[in-house]
Write a structure and sequence with these properties.
The protein is built from 15 helices and 28 strands. With about 550 residues, it is an alpha/beta fold. It has two domains: about 10-185 and about 285-385, FAD/NAD(P)-binding domain (3-Layer(bba) Sandwich), CATH 3.50.50.60; about 400-555, Glutaredoxin, CATH 3.40.30.10. The strands form five sheets. Strands 6-5-14-15-16-13-17-20 form an eight-stranded mixed sheet. It has an eight-stranded mixed sheet with strand order 21-28-27-24-25-26-22-23. It has a six-stranded mixed sheet with strand order 8-2-1-12-19-18. Helix 13 (about 500-505) links the parallel strand 25 and strand 26. It is globular, with a radius of gyration of 25 Å. The two termini are about 20 Å apart. Keywords: FAD, Flavoprotein, Oxidoreductase. GO terms for molecular function: FAD binding; oxidoreductase activity, acting on paired donors, with incorporation or reduction of molecular oxygen, NAD(P)H as one donor, and incorporation of one atom of oxygen. This is FAD-binding domain-containing protein.
């Protein structure tokens, strides 16, 4: 039965829900986005955006987020009780710039601005956010879900029943979607580990805006992160402690200002306190992200310690992983079994993320310094926290005919081996020239070819004729599923022959002028023809050499030519 007429229901309009909605809209699938709040959220919570998440926004054609985001400032720790700088701490050093990685550092952008940018793209794509709409009940059937929603308008409450084919629960740790289906939320809550986060406008001599200033130690201290997202004199305040008085400070801004001042020796002039929220070290996750026709993404399926800056990024990548699979199934282009791999792929990533962020939290608490201020090592994050090594090598729906598989499950790539194999992030490459097939022979990048709406096959070969068996097999697939390019090395003889040029006219062909693509995908010039199949989420799904392998890969997704 066709399901195209029914919008997919997305519950929650935070980053995860908005990314899921936009990715589905990019695939031509209508959505309904409901949000229980009656106004959009304020506050600079979760501002860190990893390079991997910046790639997601790039694939979704949302360049404004990278443009608006700012670099992550180093932390200047002060000697306790003084304005004497003690040391400077770099949380995560940028990776070495290369043509394979266009985004090299974690950047900062307050969630209100990030969400506003995403909402604008959703509206431009035909979507809308329904504020004041609270999900009250879900009822699953074999072919549909019945959702009951309570909507508030001008003080009046209206009950609505929505019939939908799929539900994406992006309604946070306290949301109803997970609870409706009795999904476990196992873990632990540390009531004695709390953070108070506030948006404050202030001025103070000795506090510079080119660093984040930290006073105190890791157990009991305060960080002041300057951000123009609030105002030219705005700071995100992160207050660490046992939290015994934090709840009162959330509502008593005068007392909050006194608390901030107690850490800083110089006189602070407070201009405005906009918002204060309390966070506990809550570390939990479900054991599945799917129940029938309902899914959970982001905090609805997992919450973590505030350390590490992985929460928003993991949530966005949850949504992106789910959306392309849901699009294929909703459009009747793949079997529903594909949706099971959302849990299969993301659960190990989330589990390792929780472990890594918890280790950072424990390090910050146990490696505190009393006289020497914030401990450097306790705050540093490894390069893997950029999330560029996150992989699905263990997934049942990736296939590699070339590289030997490993039994190790290392979703974050902490023990990277330097290879690019099926399940890894697909690298970028610059200086590629598209020739033939009405291409106008323009120069572009691989990331410009990768889209969230279809797979992209890159057939590395000496010439088009040597790749004919792969071209023929891949060309049989619906163009809504797959776009194919032949990638030729620089100086290819095919450029100089009539037969070679004729072959290029039949299939889009890439001239790898600077051989960045060959280097990134570790393909020697003159090697046998090889197809790298990149999924809609920018992951290498297949490294294939045979027509049989192509068939095995796509049939594994529930797709038949």
């Amino acid at each position: 039965m066709s399901t195209l007429a029914n919008p997919i229901l997305i519950v929650g309009a935070g980053p995860a829900g908005l990314v899921a909605a936009l990715a589905l809209l990019r695939n031509g699938i209508p959505v309904r986005i409901i949000e229980k709040e009656t106004s959009y959220r304020a506050g600079q919570r979760g501002p860190g955006i990893s390079p991997r998440t910046l790639e997601v926004f790039n694939f979704l054609c949302v360049p404004e987020i990278n443009a608006a985001a700012t670099r992550t400032l180093p932390i200047r720790a002060f000697k306790p009780g003084t304005m004497e700088p003690l040391r400077t701490i770099t949380l995560t050093a940028p990776i070495e710039a290369s043509t394979a990685c266009p985004f090299t550092e974690t950047k900062m952008l307050g969630q209100p601005i990030l969400e506003r940018i995403l909402r604008a793209h959703i509206r431009a794509a035909g979507g809308n956010i329904e504020l004041g709409s609270t999900l009250t009940a879900l009822e699953q059937h074999e072919d549909k879900v019945i959702a009951r929603v309570s909507k508030t308008f001008g003080g009046e409450t209206i009950e609505e029943t929505i019939e939908t084919t799929w539900v994406v629960g992006a309604d946070g740790a306290k949301g109803i979607v997970r609870k409706q289906f009795g999904l476990s939320f196992l873990g632990e809550t540390h009531e004695d580990i709390r953070k108070l986060i506030a948006d404050v406008r202030l001025t103070c001599p000795g506090i510079d805006r080119d660093v984040m200033s930290y006073f105190g130690d890791s157990l009991n201290g305060i960080g002041l992160r300057p951000t123009d997202n609030i105002a030219p004199d705005g700071y995100q305040i992160i207050l660490n402690g046992d939290g015994s008085d934090f709840q009162a400070l959330v509502h008593d801004h005068a007392a909050l200002c006194e608390k901030i001042q107690s850490f800083v020796p110089k006189k602070i002039t407070f201009h405005k306190t906009r918002r204060a929220t309390l966070r506990r070290a809550n570390i939990r996750m479900t054991d599945t992200f799917r129940k029938g026709r309902c899914f959970v993404v982001g905090d609805a399926g997992h919450v973590h310690s505030p350390s590490g800056g992985q929460g928003l990024n993991t949530s966005v990548q949850d949504a992106f992983n789910l959306a392309w699979k849901l699009a294929l199934v909703h459009n009747n282009l793949a079997l529903p079994s594909l949706l099971d791999t959302y849990t299969t792929e993301r659960l190990p990533v989330v589990a390792q993320m929780l472990g890594l962020s918890t280790s950072l939290l424990q390090g910050q608490r146990t490696q505190q310094a009393t006289e020497t201020g914030a401990n450097t090592k306790a705050w540093e994050r490894g390069e893997h926290m950029h999330q560029l090594r996150i992989n699905y090598r263990y997934s049942p729906v990736v296939l590699d005919e070339v590289n030997a598989s490993s039994e190790d499950v290392d979703p974050y790539g902490v023990k990277t081996d330097g290879r690019v194999v099926a399940g890894d992030r697909a690298p970028d490459a610059t200086g590629i020239q598209i020739i033939g097939a009405n291409s106008n022979e323009k120069t572009t990048t691989l990331f410009e070819l990768f889209k969230p709406t279809h797979h992209t096959a890159l057939i590395f070969a000496r010439d088009v004729s040597s790749a004919s068996h792969l071209v023929e097999t891949l060309s049989a697939y619906d163009p809504r599923i797959l776009r194919t390019f032949v990638v030729l090395p620089a100086g290819s003889l095919a450029m100089n022959t009539a037969a070679g040029r004729a072959g290029m006219a039949e299939v889009p062909t890439i001239l790898d002028r600077d051989e960045h693509a060959h280097h990134a995908y570790q393909v020697p010039n003159g090697d046998v023809a090889k197809a790298i199949v990149v999924r809609p989420d920018g992951v290498v799904g297949g490294v294939l050499e045979s027509a049989k392998g192509v068939g095995r890969y796509f049939s594994g997704l529930g797709i038949v030519a």
